[in-house]
């Protein structure tokens, strides 16, 4: 049973340095109540930080206080064992993961209070996030958070259950069946089971890699794989025991050291907060020393600094330089620390600490401090003092030689047998000494085959051959779907343009040979080019029907036209003459000039305006250039009476026989006279698809075939 020391802890002083006061060296320390505001130590390596912390913890040990020392190097932890007084040997709990044959059980998931579960999980997430910062993601945190919460609702679960729950469906069902939290249960039953196989594998792979790497080391696995913890952190704090943690990086690895240290600090924080069930005045002070605390300075450290005081968890932490801390932890440290002790520091840290020690000390003073000398701001009765200098106390020289006794009693009380622990782990995992390896391989293969078959849950019918086949995904059934055999054939047909769909598209295009945009043809214009996509006359008219020759006779003022392919112009005459143009056409076809002239007052169809030109023509089919110029000038003249040809109303204005009439605008090339006879001109409606073409009206879109 732990011996209790009835004395006033409020006024206890932990001595750690001496100061020159009035030409006399005076030893001083810090009161218990002031230590509850925590102590922060910074300085380069080898300047005396560890010696200062050793003196302070030995002061607590001899005073009978409960304390914990977390050492990531291992040297100080081993050295402290030789200074334990004989009457406190049984109070020591020596946690050394490197003691392979005597592992101490530590299960952070054991017997967590229902109201504290979210805090434990948050602390664990902070530890994992700091250690695996390079690969950490929100999805990884989400899945791991639900995994740990599910394991906490089941008795006798450990961290080994994380990877097994993500890979073993039967074990997962067993765990989820006991989950009490409806949100966690919904995640595993609906959300996680709804993940696609590939997505689930990608989501859990980072967790399995990192947790598996941590648990694959036997030295760590034998500690965290035991369902029943052999150490009770809450009892250590309440009974004022001495908890010495040796996390030597050189023996267990840096990641394992950081992870175990982070989990232990989280457990210490949770245990301190559980002391809310006892009155504050009855809570025993517990001092936690953390050397190189940047290795364990997770986000939860900020809450420890701000809230631990009321739970009597007092921190003394040391490290080498400011940049080792994250911004959040740095702000928490300098926002809540009561006592600041600075050894010799580097230039950047001196500039940073200048605000704390000005105007008494400059950055140059802090850079040039001798070994074991400090500048500090001491908390005195709840008030921070002005900065002053001091000299730390030398190391304690007297050893008790209690190292072996401490280790022996700690093994007997808290350690287990390595062989028995490994056997239990093998049985739990299902791979004990009697396991048939070949049978397990076959079982795993069968599970993979069944999972692959279960993925193909959608059936489809091949559009080409009618074969029914399964697929693991849902497709649009309104579109063509091809089986594995038909797909390459269809792709080859598409490349060659010989597929059924291509043939159908070609047929549809052949049946739709209708002009998309037909040019407008005005009266008296000559169409020379045939638009693309026009319908041939011989495609619309039956070939068996004999052609009929129609003679068209009109009486008009005849003017010469441009010579086109040997067509002769009519000679100019000042009097009215009759012009006969013989046009050959099928019986159903008729040119614009074949239609009789309408009456002046007829408003149904506009009457074509007679075309006039100069009277002289040449036999070679070319006009006199001078006469052409006169004709063009005559066109530009307006009627003497100011009348305008209103073509839109369908009425022709009175003609002045002494001048040429105005010519209507045209989109195509204008000839300057009557169109010359075209041999066997064929003029039909381009938009008509009837077997018998309809005569073309003036202004309609037409095409000519020669």
Automatic annotation (TrEMBL):
Gene3D superfamilies: P-loop containing nucleotide triphosphate hydrolases (3.40.50.300)
Bias (Basic residues): 627-637
Domain spans labelled Type IV secretion system coupling protein TraD DNA-binding: 30-327
Matching SUPFAM superfamilies: P-loop containing nucleoside triphosphate hydrolases (SSF52540)
Region (Disordered) residue spans: 572-706
Regions of compositional bias (Basic and acidic residues) in chain numbering: 572-583, 654-670
Bias (Polar residues): 604-624
Protein name, per record: Type IV secretion system coupling protein TraD DNA-binding domain-containing protein
Organism: Candidatus Uhrbacteria bacterium GW2011_GWC1_41_20
């Amino acid at each position: 049973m732990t011996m209790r020391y009835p004395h006033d802890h409020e006024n206890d002083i932990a001595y750690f340095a001496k100061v020159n006061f009035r030409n006399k060296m005076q030893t001083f320390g810090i009161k218990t109540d002031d230590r509850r505001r925590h102590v922060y130590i910074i300085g380069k390596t080898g300047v005396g930080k560890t010696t200062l912390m050793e003196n302070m913890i030995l002061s607590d040990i001899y005073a009978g206080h409960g304390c914990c020392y977390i050492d990531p190097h291992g040297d100080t932890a081993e050295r402290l064992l030789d200074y334990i007084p004989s009457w406190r040997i049984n109070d020591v709990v020596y946690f050394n993961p490197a003691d392979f044959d005597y592992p101490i059980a530590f299960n952070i998931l054991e017997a967590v209070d229902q109201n504290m579960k979210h805090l434990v999980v948050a602390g664990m997430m902070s530890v994992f996030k700091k250690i695996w910062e390079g690969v950490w993601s929100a999805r990884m945190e989400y899945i791991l958070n639900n995994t740990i919460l599910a394991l906490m609702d089941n008795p006798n679960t450990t961290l080994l259950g994380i990877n097994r729950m993500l890979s073993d469906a039967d074990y997962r069902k067993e765990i989820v069946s006991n989950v009490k939290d409806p949100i966690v249960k919904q995640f595993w039953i609906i959300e996680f089971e709804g993940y696609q196989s590939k997505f689930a594998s990608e989501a859990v792979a980072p967790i399995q890699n990192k947790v598996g790497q941590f648990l694959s080391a036997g030295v760590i696995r034998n500690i965290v794989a035991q369902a029943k913890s052999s150490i009770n952190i809450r009892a250590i704090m309440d009974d004022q025991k001495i908890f010495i943690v040796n996390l030597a990086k050189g023996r267990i690895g840096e990641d394992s050291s950081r992870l175990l240290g982070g989990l232990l600090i989280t457990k210490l924080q949770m245990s301190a907060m559980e002391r809310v069930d006892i009155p504050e005045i009855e809570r025993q002070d517990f001092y936690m020393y953390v050397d190189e605390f940047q290795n364990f300075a997770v986000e939860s450290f900020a809450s420890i600094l701000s809230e631990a005081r009321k739970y009597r968890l007092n921190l003394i932490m040391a490290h080498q330089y400011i940049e080792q801390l994250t911004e959040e932890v740095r702000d928490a440290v300098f926002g809540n620390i009561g006592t600041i002790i600075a050894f010799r520091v580097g230039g950047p840290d001196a500039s940073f600490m200048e605000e704390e020690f000005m105007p008494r000390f400059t950055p140059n003073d802090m850079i040039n401090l001798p070994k074991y000398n400090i500048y500090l701001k001491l908390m005195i009765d709840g008030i921070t003092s002005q900065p002053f200098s001091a000299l730390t106390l030398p190391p304690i020289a007297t050893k008790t030689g209690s190292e072996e006794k401490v280790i022996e009693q700690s093994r007997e009380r808290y350690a287990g047998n390595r062989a028995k622990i490994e056997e239990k782990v093998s049985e739990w995992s299902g791979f004990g000494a009697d396991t048939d390896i070949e049978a397990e391989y076959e079982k795993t293969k069968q599970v993979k085959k069944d999972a692959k078959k279960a993925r193909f849950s959608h059936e489809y019918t091949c559009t080409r051959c009618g074969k029914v086949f399964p697929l693991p995904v849902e497709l649009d059934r309104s579109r063509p779907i091809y089986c594995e055999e038909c797909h390459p054939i269809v792709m080859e047909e598409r490349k060659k343009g010989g597929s059924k769909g291509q043939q159908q598209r070609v047929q549809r295009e052949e049946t739709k040979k209708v002009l998309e945009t037909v040019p407008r043809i005005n009266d008296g214009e000559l169409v020379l080019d045939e638009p693309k996509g026009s319908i041939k006359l011989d495609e619309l008219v039956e070939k068996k029907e004999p052609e009929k020759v129609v003679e068209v006779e009109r009486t008009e003022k005849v003017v010469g036209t441009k010579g086109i392919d040997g067509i002769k112009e009519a000679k100019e005459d000042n009097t009215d003459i009759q012009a006969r143009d013989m046009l050959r056409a099928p019986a159903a076809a008729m040119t614009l000039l074949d239609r009789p002239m309408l009456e002046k007052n007829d408003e149904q169809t506009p009457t074509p305006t007679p075309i006039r030109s100069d009277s002289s023509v040449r036999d070679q089919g070319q006009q006199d250039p001078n006469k052409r110029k006169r004709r063009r000038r005559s066109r530009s003249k307006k009627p003497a009476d100011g009348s305008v040809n209103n073509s839109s109303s369908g009425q022709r204005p009175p003609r002045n026989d002494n001048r040429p009439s105005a010519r209507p605008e045209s989109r195509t090339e204008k000839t300057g006279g009557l169109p010359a006879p075209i041999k066997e001109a064929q003029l039909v409606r381009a938009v008509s698809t009837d077997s018998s073409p309809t005569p073309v009206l003036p202004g309609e879109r037409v095409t000519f075939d020669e």
